[in-house]
Amino acid sequence: MLYRRLERLSRTDDLLLQERQQARSDMADLVADGRAPVLRLTTARRPGQPPFLHAALLTIAVPGRDPRHFLDGAVHVPVDPDGGRLGRGLCLGAPKDRLASLKWNRAPLAGRPVPDFEAASAMALRAMAALPPLPLVHWDVILTDAGPVVLEGNSGGNWIIASLPGLDGLEACP
After folding, report:
1. Which of 134, 141, 151, 173 has the fewest C-beta atoms under 10 angstroms from its C-beta?
2. pTM of the full predicted structure?
3. Closest CA to 150 of 30, 14, 40, 17
4. Gap between the Cα atoms of 62 and 103, Å rounded
5. CA gap 128, 137 in Å, rounded
6. Neighbour count for residue 60 (Cβ, 10 Å)
7. Sequence-separated (6 or more) residues with CB below 8 Å from residue 132
8. Nearest Cα residue to 2 out of 21, 17, 22
9. Cα–Cα distance for residue pair 10/26, rounded to 1 Å
């Protein structure tokens, strides 16, 4: 069934298959229902200028919830772009309830270093520089034991999610 569907899709459009990415072993406590946390890197560029990292956020699925459920399917954790350390997390359904650790397993968040943050940021900036002069791209990255892997870049990403690091003053500019 899957093979037939993939074969049909490949006849009408480009098709890219990527093996399932697993989170780094030292991030296993941030995996929920088999879903690796996603590092969302927002890169920006002013006209005629090189790209820069505007903001970073680690999105963690909530066990038993669909991560696409906007209000309570994920915990969003701002990342300090200067040091690559996590801030306090939040769910959009209760944004004033800030989390220093995850409720379901007490995995630490606040102050925790994001492994390979510098490498992931550099990769996103290289990708941004290789694109036509788009002003903003949100990159979704999985941090694996083999290094960071870009899942996708979105030039029309979610502004609510992208602006969350600003709640803690963790963006490069307003």
Report:
1. 173
2. 0.87
3. 40
4. 9
5. 7
6. 26
7. none
8. 17
9. 37
Amino acid at 40: R
Secondary structure of 21-65 in the HEC alphabet?
A: CCCCHHHHHHCECCECCEEEEEEECCCCCCCEEEEEEEEEECCCC
Who has greater pLDDT, 2 or 42?
42
> How many residues does the structure list for the chain?
174
174 falls in which pLDDT band (50, 70, 90)?
A: low
Q: Is 51 exposed, middle or buried (0-12, 13-18, 19+ CB in 10 A)?
A: buried
